[in-house]
Amino acid sequence: MFSPVRLVQLSIFLYSFHQAVCKVEFANIKCVTLDPEFADFDYCYLKAVSRTYKYLSLRVKLLETPITKIKINVAILQRLNGYKPFLYNVTIDACKFYKNQKSNPIARYLYSFFKDYSNINHSCPYDHDIIVEKLPISHVNTQVTKVLPVPHGDYLFHSNWYAYDINRAIVDVYATIS
Asked: Where is the signal peptide (predicted)?
């Protein structure tokens, strides 16, 4: 049995070791419009400004506004002989979530990845383009290593965006944690 002092020392060592070796890298992003009459991606890309500053940006032009009913299905998948479910696969009613963000801790964690870099910061209706601008890998790295540590590997953040219960778009972000 560990003494309380040994347990604290072990915890500090494991935390320090994890922080020293974990690094998140974006590998790819794919944005697909399933209903081009409803929404269209102006841009969707990763950019490496330098070895230490890399970011993700996307902009969706909404063509039928205002939108008053939005659901988002998010699945985090890990590559193990193909992509397999890992940790979360949830569907979130975005309009309800934005009214009370404390109601769903999983949605709040997933939202924390991009909320400071997006204009998705209010409840329905949406009558403007949806933008995620210059989401830096350093912010994602903090979320994945300090907030909720994730094991090393290749991951896919897969999201389906529904408006009025019709799948309108898919956004896939590929990342590697090493």
From this structure: 1-22
